[in-house]
Design brief:
Elements (H helix, E strand, L loop, with lengths): L3 E5 L2 E4 L10 H6 L6 E2 L5 E4 L5 E4 L3 H8 L4 H25 L11 H15 L3 H10 L4 H6 L5 H8 L15 H11 L9 E2 L5 H12 L10 E7 L2 E7 L4 E3 L3 E3 L3 H7 L8 H8 L7 E8 L16 E4 L3 H12 L8 E5 L14 E8 L10 H19 L7 E7 L1 H8 L35 E3 L13 H14 L1
Parallel strand pairs: 4-12, 10-16
Antiparallel strand pairs: 1-2, 3-6, 4-5, 7-8, 8-9, 11-14, 11-15, 12-13, 13-14
Helix pairs in contact: 2-3, 3-4, 3-8
This protein binds flavin-adenine dinucleotide (FAD).
The site of flavin-adenine dinucleotide has 24 residues, from strand 11 and helix 14.
C-alpha cells in the first residue's frame, strides 16, 4: 500500500497512504534504511467552515499558545493531554513489540514479556492506570471531551480513533484505536512525515536493504497458490506457472487473502476456515488524488501551513454524520478528509509550479446499497472536490487531473480484502491475541512453514514495521 505512482502525466503521488506510520526507529536502524523524511511543522491544521484554523505544532507549548485564541481552558489542558497520552500509550507500545502469548500454555518467554508490560503499567501510577483501563473501551468523543471544549480540537484529535475503521466518534472502543496509533506516535496530531519521492521511497529503501543482505526482490510476480506437501508449505506457484521452492513461505498479504485464496482449504480445516471468514474486513476508506495547475489557496491558512496534513471534519457530530451513512451503504454528503499537498515540500512530484493533492476520504463503504462503485466513482470525486471548495474556493478551477480509488479498487488493485486498509478492522475483538484469530496470533498458520507478517497480524497499527519485526523474530526461532 506504500506506493508512489504517476496518476496523471507528470504528476506523482503516494497512491494510498500519504504519511508514514511512523516506522519504528529501531527497525529503520536495524535495516539501515536510507530515506529522506520531510517533516512539516505544524504537523496538522484543522479547518472550520467559518474561517478558523487550528494548528498542532511539534512543540506542545507553541500549540497551547496558539490555542489561547480559541479557548483558554483548552490551552491549559493541552500540555497535560500531551503528557498523559504519551505516558499511557507507551504502556501499549510495550505490548506492541511482543509476540502475543500462547493462551493455553504460556511459555516462560510469554510470562516474562507480560511481566515487563505489567511493570510498565504499574509505573503509570494509580490515576493513569485507571485512566488507561477506563479509556480503552470508551467512545473517542467522550475521551476528548474529558480534556477539551473546542469542537475543532476535539474533532481533530478524535479523528485518529475512527481513521480506516467502521467506527464513528460515538462508537464504543474507538478510543482503543486511537491509543493503538498513539503507541506508534503519541503526538495528538498523529504522524506527519512524508518520504521524499512519495511513500514508494520507503519500500524502495527496504528492498535495497534486503538486496544488500542477499535477497532477490521480484515485483509483478502474482502468487497463484502456496504449495503444500504433507501439511508443510514447500513454496509458491506464480500466476505464470513458475514454481519457487522454499523452506518457509512468509506472506504480508492479508490473512483472508493469504489463507482463503492462496491455500487449498483441505489444509486448513472447516473450523479454522469458518472463523477466518468471520474475521471482519469492511473497508470504509477511499482515496482521491488531484493534479493541480497551481498551489491551492485555503482561505484560513497562512504561509507554509498548507504543507501540514489538513484535517477537514470540524466537529464531532460532523464526523459522526460522515460515518452514519456508511452503516447503510451510503456515501457521505460531507466526508471527513485527511489532506496533504506533498509537492509543497517535494517539488519532484509535479511539473514546475504545479502541485499534487492527496486526499484520504472517510467514510466510503465497500458495499453500496444502491448502484455500483463504477457508477458512484465520479459522485464520490465530486463530493470531495465540493467539500474542499468550502475551504479553498478556487481549487475546482485549478484541477488538471483526478484519480478516485474506491474501496473496491483497493481490493482489486492492491489485494486488500474488503478494501480494509489495516488488513482487518482494528476493533477490540481483533487485536493482540485475537489478531487475526484467537490461537493464531503468533504469525504461524495451520500450515507448517507458512507464516503471516503483514498488517493483519499483531499489532497491525499502520506502517510501523512492528508486525513484520515480530514475525521475523518468530520465524527465525522456528527455522533455527
Ligand atoms: C488509503 C490508505 C490510507 C492509509 N493511511 C495510513 C496512515 O495514514 N498511516 C499508517 O500508518 N497506515 C496507513 N495505512 C495502512 C498502511 O498502508 C498499512 O498498514 C501498511 O501498508 C501495511 O503493510 P503490509 O506490508 O502489511 O501490507 P501491504 O502494504 O498491503 O502489502 C501487501 C502486499 O502483498 C501484495 N499481494 C497481495 N496478494 C498477492 C499475491 N497473490 N501475490 C503477490 N503479491 C500479493 C500486495 O500487492 C501488496 O504489495 C493506509 C492504507 C490505505 C490503503
Amino acid at each position: 500500500m506504500a506506493a508512489t505512482e504517476e496518476f496523471h502525466p507528470g504528476f506523482k503521488c503516494s497512491s494510498l497512504l500519504h504519511a508514514e506510520g511512523p516506522l519504528r526507529p529501531d527497525i529503520a536502524r536495524d535495516l539501515k534504511l536510507r530515506v529522506e523524511m520531510l517533516r512539516p511543522d505544524p504537523r496538522l491544521v484543522a479547518l472550520a467552515p467559518d474561517g478558523r484554523a487550528l494548528a498542532l505544532y511539534e512543540d506542545a507549548k507553541r500549540t497551547a499558545e496558539a490555542l489561547k485564541q480559541l479557548s483558554a481552558k483548552d490551552a491549559t489542558a493541552y500540555p497535560e493531554f500531551v503528557r498523559v497520552l504519551a505516558q499511557v500509550s507507551a504502556v501499549i507500545g510495550e505490548v506492541l513489540a511482543l509476540t502475543p502469548p500462547e493462551i493455553d500454555k504460556p511459555s516462560a518467554g510469554d510470562a516474562w514479556g507480560m511481566l515487563k508490560a505489567g511493570k510498565k503499567f504499574r509505573s503509570l501510577g494509580r490515576k493513569d492506570m485507571f485512566r488507561l483501563l477506563r479509556w480503552g473501551p470508551m467512545a473517542v468523543a467522550d475521551f476528548v471531551a474529558e480534556f477539551f471544549e473546542t469542537e475543532l480540537l476535539r474533532a481533530a484529535v478524535a479523528a485518529r480513533g475512527i481513521f480506516g475503521t467502521t467506527f464513528g466518534p460515538w462508537s464504543a472502543g474507538s478510543t482503543m484505536a486511537l491509543l493503538l496509533h498513539a503507541a506508534a506516535d503519541p503526538h495528538p496530531a498523529g504522524p506527519s512525515a512524508f518520504p521524499r519521492g512519495g511513500m514508494g521511497a520507503l519500500p524502495g529503501a527496504i528492498a535495497e536493504a534486503a538486496k544488500a543482505a542477499g535477497a532477490q526482490v521480484r515485483t509483478g510476480a502474482d502468487v497463484a497458490h502456496v504449495v503444500v506437501k504433507d501439511g508443510v508449505a514447500r513454496g509458491v506457484v506464480l500466476k505464470s506457472g513458475e514454481e519457487i521452492a522454499a523452506d518457509a513461505v512468509v506472506s504480508n498479504a492479508d490473512p483472508r487473502n493469504t489463507l482463503l485464496r492462496l491455500v487449498d482449504p483441505m489444509h486448513l480445516g472447516p473450523d479454522f476456515i469458518s472463523k477466518l471468514q468471520h474475521y471482519r474486513c469492511r473497508g470504509t476508506t477511499a482515496k482521491v488524488n488531484l493534479a493541480l495547475g497551481v498551489a491551492p489557496k485555503f482561505s484560513a491558512l497562512k504561509g507554509s501551513d498548507a504543507a501540514a496534513r489538513i484535517h477537514i471534519g470540524p466537529e464531532i457530530d460532523y464526523l459522526e454524520r460522515a460515518f452514519d451513512g456508511s452503516k447503510y451503504g451510503r456515501l457521505p454528503e460531507h466526508p471527513y478528509l485527511d489532506v496533504s499537498i506533498p509537492s509543497l515540500l517535494d517539488a519532484s512530484l509535479a511539473p514546475a509550479g504545479k502541485h499534487v493533492m492527496s486526499v484520504l476520504v472517510h467514510f466510503a463503504p465497500y458495499k453500496l446499497r444502491e448502484g455500483t462503485w463504477d457508477s458512484q466513482r465520479d459522485a464520490l470525486g465530486n463530493t470531495v472536490v465540493k467539500t474542499l471548495a468550502t475551504y479553498a474556493p478556487e481549487l475546482p478551477g485549478t484541477i488538471e487531473g483526478r484519480q478516485v480509488l474506491t474501496p473496491l479498487d483497493l481490493e482489486t488493485k492492491f489485494g486488500l480484502t474488503g478494501g480494509q486498509i489495516f488488513h482487518g478492522e482494528l476493533a477490540l475483538d481483533q487485536m493482540f491475541t485475537m489478531r487475526p484469530l484467537l490461537g493464531w496470533a503468533r504469525y504461524r498458520t495451520p500450515v507448517d512453514g507458512l507464516y503471516l507478517c503483514g498488517s493483519g497480524t499483531h499489532p497491525g497499527n499502520g506502517l510501523t514495521g512492528a508486525s513484520g519485526a515480530n514475525a521475523a523474530r518468530e520465524i527465525l526461532k522456528a527455522l533455527r
